[in-house]
């Protein structure tokens, strides 16, 4: 597309997302990799919450969570999800929607091992999304798993990642008087080439 230049230039949307995220890393006060992750429940009621984007692979976006959480239940039954990343400091957003599958095995083990000990123990202690009697009960569970695993907790069998393979990615940048720039990359199937269109703001 002739006028896709400057911050929108390039033929690989994953490289572009990486470049924007790295720029945001220099200007955001915290969590430049925070994404609002949208799922849908069995009745079609949407749901949304923040998670941290941990990897941008060549072809996919990866985040980590509890595989027994509400989001996991919704992702696994629908097989798809969407997210948006917004950087106030850059006045830009990137959104993506597509197909989601689990990240387990060595890749999830390696990411789990990179987390702080307290976060690894916390992952064991939290029955994410389920009701909790009190904060004291959670801290008692942390003490219990600490006694069990000491300083080397393995990755819990109920904890790992999800890989979102987009069918659409949109790059948006603020323009004067709400005349923003938007480019949408889309493909009907992950095996097919992208087509890119400029969208009205
Ligand atoms: C900035 C930010 C980052 C977060 N990152 C994660 C994350 O990477 N993984 C995660 O499971 N929850 C993360 N959370 C907590 C989630 O927003 C959410 O409370 C939790 O995952 C339970 O969601 P669910 O009940 O819909 O499954 C984060 C929250 C915030 C505000």
Automatic annotation (TrEMBL):
Catalyzed chemical reaction(s): pyridoxamine 5'-phosphate + O2 + H2O = pyridoxal 5'-phosphate + H2O2 + NH4(+); pyridoxine 5'-phosphate + O2 = pyridoxal 5'-phosphate + H2O2
Give the protein's cofactors.
FMN
Binding, FMN: 49-54, 64-65, 70-71, 93, 128-129, 172, 182
> What UniProt keywords apply to this chain's record, in alphabetical order?
Flavoprotein, FMN, Oxidoreductase, Pyridoxine biosynthesis
GO BP terms: pyridoxine biosynthetic process
- One of this protein's Pfam families, by short name? PNP_phzG_C
GO molecular function ontology, one term from the record: FMN binding
EC annotation from Swiss-Prot or TrEMBL = 1.4.3.5
Top-level EC class as recorded in UniProt: oxidoreductase
Q: In which pathway does it act?
A: Cofactor metabolism; pyridoxal 5'-phosphate salvage; pyridoxal 5'-phosphate from pyridoxamine 5'-phosphate: step 1/1; Cofactor metabolism; pyridoxal 5'-phosphate salvage; pyridoxal 5'-phosphate from pyridoxine 5'-phosphate: step 1/1
Regarding protein family, the annotation reads: Belongs to the pyridoxamine 5'-phosphate oxidase family.
What's the name of the protein? Pyridoxine/pyridoxamine 5'-phosphate oxidase
Taxonomic source organism: Rubellimicrobium mesophilum DSM 19309
């Amino acid at each position: 597309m002739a006028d896709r230049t400057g911050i929108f230039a390039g033929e690989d949307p994953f490289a572009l997302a990486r470049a924007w995220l790295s720029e945001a890393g220099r200007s955001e006060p915290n969590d430049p990799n925070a994404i609002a992750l949208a799922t849908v429940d069995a009745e079609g009621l949407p749901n949304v919450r923040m998670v941290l984007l941990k990897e941008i692979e060549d072809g996919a976006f990866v985040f980590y969570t509890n595989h027994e959480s509400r989001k996991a239940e919704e992702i696994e039954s629908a097989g798809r999800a969407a997210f948006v990343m917004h950087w106030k400091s850059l006045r830009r957003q990137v959104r993506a929607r597509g197909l989601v599958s689990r990240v387990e095995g060595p890749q999830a083990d390696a990411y789990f091992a990179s987390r702080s000990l307290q976060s690894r123990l916390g992952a064991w202690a939290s029955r994410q999304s389920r009701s909790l009697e009190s904060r004291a009960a959670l801290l008692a569970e942390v003490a219990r798993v600490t006694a069990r695993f000491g300083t080397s907790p393995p990755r819990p069998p109920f904890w790992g990642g999800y890989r979102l393979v987009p069918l659409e990615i949109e790059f948006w940048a603020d323009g004067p008087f709400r005349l923003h720039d938007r480019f949408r990359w889309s493909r009907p199937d992950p095996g097919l080439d992208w087509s890119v269109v400029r969208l009205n703001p």
